[in-house]
Amino acid sequence: MKPTSVRLREARIGRGWSQPRLIRELRQAAARRGHQLPSDSSVKRRIASWENGHSVPDDFYGPLICDAYSVDAGGLGLEHSQSKNAAVLDVAYPVSPDDAIQTVGQLWRADLSQYDPLLTSEPSEPAWSEASLRWLVGPEPGTPRPRNNGVRVGAGDVAAVKTTADFFARLDDQFGGDHARHSVIQYLNNDVAPLLRGQYTEQVGRALFSTVAEATLLAGWMSYDACRHGLAQRYFLQALRLAQDANDRRLAGSILSAMSHQATFLGRCTQAATLARAALMGISLVATPTLRGQFHAMEARALARAGDVVGCEAALNAAAKAMGCRNSVDEPEWISYFDDIELAAEAAHCFRDVNSARQAVAHAENAMSGNHVRSDFFATMVLADAHLCAGEVEEACRVALDALDLGEQLKSARCVTYLAEFRRNLGTRSPNTAARDLAEEARDHRLWMAAEPCGQRSASG
Fold it and tell me: What is the mean pLDDT of the chain?
């Protein structure tokens, strides 16, 4: 039987393909699966390694090769080459609590090992729809199978996870998702995974699942802030299943809201609006005013990005009405950050996106809390965008410089996209002194350098 390396080389040469032709075919196959490949030179090195027998295609590249050549894995000698990371590339809502425990553990391990196909994966639109529908129509909590081994887990263990996750959330807020993301995943993998696989009562298990869902939601937010979008989506999906099995419907709704936020950022506006509405519907019996306000605001953000001015304003009005009824008695602790200042920031984004510059300015000026560095950076950049849209270039540049000073400590790819969009829009204006002065003063700022025009995705976070 011919070695895999020989079969791979013969499959290419037999079709008369050069290595660049194979690279193009692999890119097309990856695009059909919602993935993206690294640089041509990187893929070419992989092809040479496969064809020279130094390695075999892993579970990411193996299916792409089969697609490119229109043959099955056996025909290329790849049937036994699947790696231990195969399951993490699937984007599916877990079917059971045990499935969620296994899958989220695999995700943490693959993330820590910097498994490139996972880190560079793209989100799946069908996965958003499947998850929201599966949760809406079957929200009953499940129970993991009883275990006779593993650590014994008590309420104190759950409290420790909660306290640790809260600490990491503060770091994320102050320094951005890329600052401590690796440390969060390391903690989840090393300290939390054994608890999920341990022994606990049903009551402790529900509390554990809720707390781990919160921590996994944080991992999703941090991955999203780092623009690891396929990875972030997978964390959100696992968090949703854990929240379902914790019977924590409010947290589950908040996770759908996070998915909506990401979908809007990526320009998937229809999906984003649907996710926000699913969150509202799914917690209708246990909703609080703040949760309703936040979910309506997410719907408004999606509609604004889609250009639906009437729908956006209706959703913003509903959000303001809900927030006017809030109290602190029955609100979950983790939604306490969402207040009038946060709502003003969401409204500023909305009015910026529908080109209502004056309203965007008014709301953005009320959106600076002084307590949340990254949120204040976003609001300040929206204010700069709004001034630029209003033709006030000098003021826009002054505000953008304020944002750079504010965000000097942030490690956030989303922050870079805001700056990149501002720089592109500023570049469409006639050359002027304010823009030149900004470029001169900002040239040594880390975020400004990272936002060098290079075709980044527009900011909407």
Answer: 91
